[in-house]
Amino acid sequence: MDATGRLTNVQLELLKLFQYNLPEAQLMEIKEILAKYFAKSASDEMDKLWERENWDENTIESLKNEHLRKK
């Protein structure tokens, strides 16, 4: 749901798909497809960030040691 409590466009489309009673194997396959899609999207965004910010391995090491919590 979005901040207003309404379903998002993705949720509405998935509800259309899941109106059918699928066998467990097909349900697992769909979950895997969705997981791979979102993992690829996240990876693509990280690649863009690396390129845009000129990051390298030293940047990652620095970020691992940085405290990002707000007080």
Characterize the structure shown.
This protein has a domain at 21-65. It has helices at residues 9-17, 24-53, 57-65. The protein has three helices and no strands. The protein is mainly alpha-helical and 71 residues long. The radius of gyration is 19 Å and the shape is elongated.
List the helices and strands and how they pair.
Elements: H1 9-17, H2 24-53, H3 57-65
Kindly list the characteristics that best describe this protein.
single chain; 71 residues; mainly alpha; elongated
Oligomeric description of these chains: single chain
Radius of gyration: 19 Å
The structural class is: mainly alpha
Enumerate how many helices there are, as a single number.
Answer: 3
Strand share of the residues?
under 5%
Spans of at least 5 consecutive residues with low confidence: none
Can you write the helix and strand succession as a string?
HHH
Q: What would the principal axes of the Cα set say about the shape?
A: elongated
Tell me the total number of β-strands: 0
Share of residues in helices: 55-70%
What distance separates the N and C termini?
29 Å
The main sheet comes to:
none
Average pLDDT taken over every residue: 88
